[in-house]
Design brief:
Order of helices and strands: EHEEHEHHEEHEEHEEHHEEHEEHHHH
Number of domains: 2
Largest sheet: 7 strands, parallel
Strand order of the largest sheet: 3-2-1-4-5-7-11
Distance between the termini: 41 Å
CATH topology of the largest domain: Rossmann fold
CATH architecture of the largest domain: 3-Layer(aba) Sandwich
Helix content: 25-40%
Strand content: 15-25%
């Protein structure tokens, strides 16, 4: 199978390249290169590569591929708030351009990386895919808008599947520290403290970034009738967790560590639990391979082996927000 992955240099994209290639598939990568310097360990090499904006792709670029995995995006709440027009153009307009050229080129399948952030506040319920969305940020609003337009474009010949990913965590060749788990772990590694910007009372569903990539592989290889037109929450019921409980679990990994709250810490309005039972029904062979506790140990060990990590964190090497600011001169 020939697979085109947008954002292949990214946090999840690196894992996706490796996983699809290990499964025997030919991988074309598309990436504009904004975060090419965010390298923590060696990235896997793609079989073919296009260094360009998704918005500039043509039908010829995507023709001949069996599936397109669309990961490229302004990829979290803080980045989305930096410039809402940029977020909309990247996450909605460029996504629909990609879908249009895929349909024109008769690419049979498009898998779209969305987010459980679209639920906003589940009011204590475990949100399934039919749960009312309540996006509270520009990022989440852009994902919902793209979802709706993509599903309208799909048909029997052009299969669209939406993967609403839980909050990603864990080691990647293109590490991100602007994710709650990774932020806590890297602060513990370099300062022996975990710092909370909120009171920690909100819930988050979490999933390892490599498990997300594996879900995309399973959707790419599934029968078309199983995934066409579907929205699927991607995560693990056992990894719905309160932020404060996550912080305490991570903090406990090091002796004499401190749990510190920001002076402005208050309630986080983004508070959602998620139901992942549909994922198990659609992809019965899928299961998560990573646990929160074990990954704390692994990522801490990886951080300890990087002698200049503290300086890299101060410089914003692994912060996508800081890198985007640098690129766009904010």
């Amino acid at each position: 199978m020939k697979v085109l992955i947008t954002g292949h240099q990214g946090y999840i994209g690196c894992h996706a390249v490796d996983i699809f290639q290990r499964a025997g598939h030919f991988v074309t990568g598309v990436d504009i290169g904004y975060f090419a310097d965010c390298t923590f360990t060696k990235r896997p090499r793609v079989d073919a590569e296009l260094t360009t904006d998704v918005a500039d792709l043509t039908p010829r670029d995507v023709a001949g591929h069996d599936v397109v995995v669309h990961l490229a995006a302004i990829s979290n709440d803080s980045m989305g708030e930096l410039d809402e027009d940029l977020t909309t153009n990247t996450n909605v307009a460029a996504t629909m351009h990609l879908a249009d050229i895929c349909k024109t080129a008769k690419v049979p399948r498009l898998l779209f990386s969305s987010s459980c952030a679209v639920y906003g506040d589940s009011h204590g319920a475990h949100a399934d895919e039919s749960f009312a969305t309540a996006p509270q940020t520009a990022y989440a609003r852009s994902k919902i808008a793209a979802e709706q337009q993509l599903l309208e474009l799909g048909d029997n010949d052009f299969s669209v599947c939406i993967l609403r990913n839980a909050t990603a965590y864990g080691h990647s060749p293109a590490l991100r520290t602007d994710l709650v788990f990774n932020d806590f772990v890297t602060r513990l590694a370099t300062k022996n403290k975990v710092h909370l910007l909120s009171n920690g009372g909100a819930h988050r569903p979490l999933i390892h970034c490599r498990d997300i990539a594996r879900a995309f592989l399973d959707c790419a290889e599934a029968a078309q009738e199983m995934i066409n037109g579907q929205i699927i929450n991607v995560g693990d019921d056992a990894q719905n967790i309160k932020v404060i409980d996550l912080a305490r679990m991570i903090c406990a990994k090091r002796d004499d560590s401190d749990l510190v709250f920001s002076k402005t810490a208050g309630a986080d309005q983004r508070d959602y639990l998620v139901n992942f039972s549909k994922l198990r029904r659609i992809l019965p062979n899928f299961s998560v391979n990573y646990s929160l506790s074990a990954e704390v140990d692994y990522l801490l060990d990886s951080c300890d082996k990087r002698p200049n990590l503290a300086d890299e964190l101060v410089a914003g090497r692994y912060s996508r927000l800081q890198q985007l600011k640098n690129r766009l001169d904010f």
